[in-house]
Amino acid sequence: MPASARETPDVVVIGMGPGGEDVAGRLADAGLDVVGVDERLVGGECPYYGCIPSKIMVRSADLVGEAWRIPGMAGIVRVHPDFHPVARRVREATHNWDDKAAVDRFTGRGGRFLRGTARLTGPGEVTVLGTDGRETVLMPRQAVVLATGSEPSTPPVPGLAGTPYWTNRELIETEELPESLLVLGGGAIGLELGQALQRLGCAVTVVEVGPRLLGREEPESSDLVTRVLTGDGVAVHTGTELASVEYRDGRFQLICRRGERLSGERLLVATGRRVPMDRIGAGVLGIPSDARVVPIDERCRVVGTPGVWPVEGWPVGVWAIGDITGKGAFTHMSMYQADITVRAILGQGGAPARYHAVPRVTFTDPEIGAVGLTEADARAQGLPVRAAVTELAASSRGYIHGANGNAGFIKLVASGDTLVGATSAGPSGGELLGLLSLAVSARIPLSELAATIWAYPTFHRAVGTAVAELVQS
């Protein structure tokens, strides 16, 4: 290996996903010497394998779903789904998985980019092993920012390792729709992609070890999405633990502990994601390699471990944003923390991080939007809780939409005179979530929400109905 080059930039950003790219670019704009490092594509999972291409698939599938609703409402239609234009749009959106435009965007702002793996190797020291085999030692003068993102995790099911299973990355890249798909995991990724492929012509089976789909959301959300997926033709198996996986003759077999054998051409593993602590040298910070998160303060600065890694023992500050912080594996979380980190490094002050109103959306049809605490979470925290649920079907807009397209509800969770959580499930549930996120974030009193004029006839009037129920309770 060639001798290591040594450089002393102002800031090193490890991971150039949405948050890391934003931090690196804005600090470069401010005149700092910034080096961004990533072994994968600049822009991260979201534009290439996550948010954008998956929602392109979902959008196409939603059009098919809308066509299914025409009978009884607007005539007769025959739908012949075609996956090829979907795959073509995905390739266009990802530039065929080429990040040249993103790299040029960053370097055009004055930053420097190294393609390779970065590892903390000492106090204030980052060693980068480039994809070209060159090693570079970076000794930043001001800051290190950990924005590593996460990667798909694989459950330790006997027989799974070594098979050609898919993660979201392989599914997004496929140009041919499989005849059948087994989905291991009943969270957002598995359900979004599973429903999309079912509607586009693939026979989908979802297998979830927990007692219900979307186990971290309200039980009403789980019931709704299970009912809708089943109506679409998806086979749903909850409370199902796998004994082993087999792959032979081009097909997967899932052998379940309670006796079922489930078969499919392809297997999507969507059981969660993990942060590669072992690869980034987290031990240098006193963080075990098997830790799930890096602890941070309200300015996203990494908190030291007493007796192991005192913060004052490092010559530069270390910040962390995104999945690695455990505050929510969402693009919007990394962007939120990126802004706080940039302001902290530049000494600009501003509001500290607050995590009581983190929004999240599962882009099934209907969409499941949620913010803050679920009713169960709030009760587990010992809060005095009141909850109200309003069905969209009971609203005027729900009647207008018709029985085949008005599935959904509004659920509000209050403690005292403010909302601590809310769910908006239904058509454009993610868009309706915006006003609920504001209400939870700003702690708007229920009395103020009750005095709001809600436009008619809209789905969001259901929020007013639920608020009125809370006020009267």
From TrEMBL:
InterPro entries from the UniProt entry: FAD/NAD-bd_sf (IPR036188), FAD/NAD-binding_dom (IPR023753), FAD/NAD-linked_Rdtase_dimer_sf (IPR016156), Pyr_nuc-diS_OxRdtase (IPR001100), Pyr_nucl-diS_OxRdtase_dimer (IPR004099)
Domain FAD/NAD(P)-binding span(s) in chain numbering: 10-338
GO molecular function per UniProt: flavin adenine dinucleotide binding; NAD(P)H dehydrogenase (quinone) activity
Cofactor: FAD
Binding site for NAD(+): 185-192, 208, 272
Name listed for the protein in its UniProt record: NAD(P)/FAD-dependent oxidoreductase
Disulfide-bond pairs as recorded: 46-51
Entry note: cofactor: Binds 1 FAD per subunit.
Keyword Nucleotide-binding recorded: yes
Species the sequence originates in: Streptacidiphilus fuscans
Binding site for FAD: 55, 148-150, 323
Domain Pyridine nucleotide-disulphide oxidoreductase dimerisation: 358-466
Pfam families attached to this UniProt entry: Pyr_redox_2, Pyr_redox_dim
Keywords: FAD, Flavoprotein, NAD, Nucleotide-binding
Family: Belongs to the class-I pyridine nucleotide-disulfide oxidoreductase family.
